[in-house]
Design brief:
94% helix
Length: 36
C-alpha cells in the first residue's frame, strides 16, 4: 500500500511539472507573438 501511494505521488508531481511546462510554453509563445 505504501509503494502505491509513493508512485501516485510521483505521478502527481510529474503531471504538475508537465502542466507547468505547457503553461510556460504557451505564455512564451504569446509574448513572442506580441513582440513581433
Amino acid at each position: 500500500m505504501v509503494h502505491l501511494s509513493k508512485s501516485l505521488d510521483k505521478m502527481q508531481a510529474c503531471w504538475r511539472w508537465s502542466m507547468l511546462r505547457i503553461i510556460l510554453l504557451v505564455t512564451g509563445m504569446l509574448a513572442f507573438d506580441k513582440l513581433n
